[in-house]
Amino acid sequence: MPPPLLLVDGDSMLFRAFFALPDSIEGTDGRPVNALLGMANLVLREGEAHSPRATVICFGQEAAHYRVELFSGYHADRPEVPEKLSQQFAAAPGFFRAFGWTVTASENLEADDLLGAYARREADAGGRALVMTGDRDLYQCAGERVSVLYVRTGREGAEVVDPTEVERRYGVPPALVPDFIALRGDPSDGIPGAKG
Q1: Is residue 13 within 8 Å of residue 134, measured between CB atoms?
Q2: What distance in Å separates the CA atoms of residue 102 and residue 96, rounded to the nearest whole number?
Q3: pLDDT confidence of 68, banded at 50, 70, 90?
Q4: For residues 32 and 93, what is the distance between their CA atoms, to the nearest angstrom?
């Protein structure tokens, strides 16, 4: 079987790395680099573990407009991005391209949307994809040819989540994860869930 395509949730990983490492870590020019350094190390570690044929880092909107139009509370309570992290988001595309990784971004979609689309396209073409994220929403992508590499703060190495593991955790197959989240709610996204 050919090597997998590694798809990385750039937004999720950069946030995680920023809060995992001290923001006093700076480059020689005095700019903060803790998130860039932390994320690069995470991606390099998973690349070494899984030997992907290529790595694609995906960035997107904080809250896609179409989701906010459907539900105005979506991402409404999220705190403002710290300035030191904002600077690193701006530097991220060039920084990660220097590793030879493909960087893709959208002004209209979230990184989740890009990751799901690329994973499906890879699976439909007969390949395998690994979706690296810290966002359990992406468990819905797990399938015969797609696994989720779930990164937890403070844990060494990502956890491989396949359809069997999704069903064990949630009691539903990956395709029903969006429905499960809608019913249960998701405070991090501002989704209240069903009452009762």
Answers
A1: yes
A2: 8
A3: very low
A4: 15
Q: What is the pTM of this model?
A: 0.89
Rg value, the chain, Cα: 17
128-161 core/surface letters (b: 16 or more CB in 10 A; e: else): bbbbbbbbbbbbbbbbebbbbbbbeeeeeebeeb
Collapsing DSSP to helix, strand or coil, 1 comes out as coil
DSSP string, 117-177: HHHHHHHHTT--EEEEES-GGGGGG--SSEEEEE--TT-SSPEEE-HHHHHHHHSS-GGGH
Q: CA-CA distance, 45 to 97, in Å (whole number)?
A: 17
Neighbours of 194 (CB within 10 A): 8
Q: Are 135 and 112 in contact (CB under 8 A)?
A: yes
Hey, what domains does the chain have and what are their CATH numbers?
5-189 (3.40.50.1010)
What is the largest distance, in Å, between two alpha-carbon atoms of the chain? 55
DSSP 8-state symbol, 63: S
pLDDT digits (tens, 9 = 90+) for 135-176: 999 999 999 999 999 998 766 789 999 999 999 999 999 999
Q: Are 12 and 114 in contact (CB under 8 A)?
A: no
